[in-house]
Amino acid sequence: MSDTLPAPSTPAAPERKVSGVPIRLEGVTKRYSGQDRPAVDSVSLDIAAGETVMFVGPSGCGKTTLLKMINRLIEPSDGRIHLGDEDVTSQDPDQLRRRIGYVIQAGGLFPHMTVGTNVGMVPRMLGWEKQRVTERIDELLDLVGLDPDVYRDRYPKELSGGQQQRVGVARALAADPPVLLMDEPFGAVDPITRQRLQDELIRIQLELGKTIVFVTHDFDEAVKLGDKIVIFDVGARIVQYDTPEAILAEPAEEYVADFVGAGATLKQLTLTRVNSLELRQVTTASVGDDAAEAVARARAAGDDFVVVLDKRGRPISWPTLAEVSRMSTVPPTVDERLPVVGLGATLNDALDTMLAASQGGVVVLGRRDGMAGVVSIEAIMEAIQRTRQETAG
Amino acid sequence: MWDFVVDRRGQIAYQAFQHVSLVVQCVVLGTLIALVLAALVYRSALATSVANAVSAVGLTIPAFALLGFLLAPFGFGITPAVIAVTFYAALPVLRNAVVGLAGVDRALIESARGMGMSRMATLLRVELPLAWPVILAGVRVSTQMVMGIAAIAAYVLGPGLGGFIFTGLARLGGANSVNSALTGTIAIVLLALVLDLLLLLLGRLTTPRGIRV
After folding, report:
1. Chain A, nearest residue to B211 by Cα
2. Total domains in the fold of chain B
3. What is the DSSP letter of A280?
4. Which end of chain A is more exposed for a tag (fewer CB within 10 A), N or C?
5. Any chain A CB within 8 A of the CB of B114?
6. Residue B150 burial (CB < 10 Å; 0-12/13-18/19+)?
7. Where is the ABC transporter domain (chain A) (predicted)?
8. What's the number of CA atoms in the CB half-sphere (13 Å) around residue B7?
9. CB B116 to CB A157 under 8 A?
10. CATH number, domain at B28?
11. Does B130 touch chain A if contact means CB atoms closer than 8 Å?
12. What is the mean pLDDT of the segment spanning B179-205?
């Protein structure tokens, strides 16, 4: 089944990989009896394959109803829905949903099943062989940054909110569906965890290239994650459908400008990503390495700290040289407060993370949570200056 | 009394076996009926309240009266006993099953449906397992209750330890009459405790680790 995913060893392709299919809504309408105005009023929308499209709007505007009509958890009263070349409006809904990943708030994991069973749910329904399901579970847990050996047999209640949400994403991706629907998935976690989950989603999407439809009420989240943003008003009326840059630069109506909020110059900060900065390469050491040798290497490179990587190459701490030289080998201690962001994180996120950890820099994670480099507060300030000059001029 | 028990140990053991066998079979049957009924009604608010009312009213019918009614169509013997005991066994399970199924988090059901599970699969793989601890609590209540009701079933000449009680009470003042009634009563209480313990064990074994408290 690895033929559906890029082999882990292939370097990131310069062009974006697309494994999704386009979605096309034609005059999709939902009327509830006893209400004079339809909840969703004749919406037509084209979503390109492999794009992440964010649905934003005030609560009760019909964005969630529209999302749920794509996998027909809510049956449309009128209109057609196309997935790729197929009209799925009258297809068997259970069969249809097995081809569409669905992620809800807090993951919606089944508490009476292990993490592995949860993730393997859809492949088993599709009749995959046992061996293939087992391999797929491990592959997906690895993809969302959870060690399969540690987490496969745990129960959801033994996981943190962020971990549960990761499993939720893994479960939705299990049968490699071309389309992923996400209904305010990160609404129930704390800001720092939310930001990490967002980074992770960006990284996963870069690897997989699914067509993602994502409902949120958080405009910053929409700007960060979306290739395109749809702004809805009541009745799921589409007010503006464009790239985040275009919406920020030219809000289509007063309504959008209000929704986007003031301080649009600083909002541009959420448009600049960490991967557009030059990452500083620093000395790394693996757990168990000789400490003196690591210190010597760091001194030679002019660093005053080393980043410690675990056996899977993920950064776990960044002790100063003074700390390291007191030990004989590089310690396996995990620094829970180590500030990390993903490559897709915004400058806003990076600044937030530094402030929360009271650190002058942040470790940037690349593929499979490996280290991509370090960004310092100076580099961010410089980028802010640059952006402000650009917008001013 | 000890002599009474020792003299009739064969008969007591046989009646005890009959009693437990009647109760266990009727509880299993009653549970199945209750689960099917609960699965039919729990999605509708109206049907749910009807089911709750039926189980509340049903439990207030005196067992004697019900057995009396059943005598007319079915005569004496095992049939009216089984019907009555199953009826009472089903009611607490029905109530708990409806409550348990209604208590399953809507988000989990939506999650199950959203990944392409059919209604039936959602019920069997998600809703029933999650409601299971509550259902099992109902089974325990109903087992305790029908241990006593099965004794009354001896009135219609059903099997079980009720025979000792009725014989004893009928010959009150006669030789061994109190011994007979006491033996029947104590044996029922002891067996009820043993059954409850077994059900507790069943609960431990059948409740998934993830939802154990």
Report:
1. A112
2. 1
3. B
4. C
5. yes
6. buried
7. 23-260
8. 8
9. no
10. 1.10.3720.10
11. yes
12. 92
